[in-house]
Each structure stands twice: as C-alpha cells, then as structure tokens.
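Section handout, structural biology tutorial.
Before the tutorial, make sure you can parse a SMILES string by hand: atoms, branches in parentheses, ring closures as digits. In the record below the ligand is zinc ion, and the chain has 200 residues. In the tutorial you will relate the predicted structure tokens back to the input. Do not try to memorize them.
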Amino acid sequence: MAVDTKARIEQFKFMAEANPKDELAFFSLGRAYLEGGDAANAIPALQKVIELNPKMSKAYQILASAQTAAAKQLEAIETLKAGVKVAHERGDMMPRNDMLKTLKEHGVLMPEYEAAMKPAEPVGEGEVHCKRCGLVKPKMARQPFSHATGKVIQDNVCADCWREWIAMGTKVINELRLPLNDPQAQKVFDQHMMEFLNLK
Ligand SMILES: [Zn+2]
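Predicted structure of the complex:
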C-alpha cells in the first residue's frame, strides 16, 4: 500500500474515532481502505456510513465495490438494490444509473427503475446536461472558479446542483475540520466536491 494512502487511512481512522457520528469521516476511511486494496476493512467503515446516514447513495455504490472486491457477490447485489432505491428517491440519477448498470452486469434487472432511465435530451444554448442530477437544466452564468476545474464544472453541472454543493461543501469543511490553506486538505475537499458532483 502506498505511503500516502496509509497516512490518509490513519488520519481518517483518527477522525472517525474522535467523531463516531461523523458519516464523512467513515466514508473517507472506507474509500481510502478500498483504494489501498483493503476491501475487508473498507466494508465495516462503509456499512457504518449507511447506518449513520441511510440516504447517502454514493456509500452504497462504494460498499458494493468493496463487497465485490472481497468476493461477496450476493451481498454486493443486495447493497446495490438498496442503493438504487435510495438514489432514485433522492433524485441522484447518475449514481442510480451506474448502480443499475452494475446490477445488470451481475445479471440482476430492476425494470421498475430502469423505465425511468431517460435518454439524454438535446442540450440547448445556456443549458447543460448535468452529470449529478441527470437532467438538462440551466447552466451557471459563469465558471465557479477561474481555473480548468471551474470550466469542467460549468460545462457539466447545473446551477441547482452547484448550489447544493455549496451547502454540502460547508458541511465537509466543518465536519472534517479542513484547514483550506493546507494543500492536502484542499485535495480532500476537491475529492469530495468531484464525487458529490459525479465528476471523475
Ligand atoms: Zn443538476
């Protein structure tokens, strides 16, 4: 495992132990374990996220990846099914569609949700096919940042989802106590942002 992955795991473990109700700390911990190839430890951390916040659709998606990596296919399928329902109810279209796709690869169909998968509509002037909500909606009037990521966000995320991220971003900074003048913290923050906006 890479040294910086190990360091991040230690950091998130410390945060999760200090704030046992902090879903973001457990989410970051689970994801770091998975990135480090440690699916066995990723699973309980991600299960804890869902216990703390059953509406976090992204947690189901990552938990299912960990369960698949740990050769727990049947559990992964159950996680994905639950995740599709949660994502559908919340209007998180992209995670929902990604999870439906993964289920299909496992040979499992959920026709009642698949019917709602609409083909992309044509995008007009001043509109964007939003990667987060999956809808064609008004574009942001200007880039949220001047650098390249700002352009990617303006071209791929609707104004409404961006406003939702502003609120969530504040929560991330407060809960993870990120000092944003620290480049490492800035990286963690950006990762949360790209994940929330469903941009890779
Ligand atoms: Zn949107």
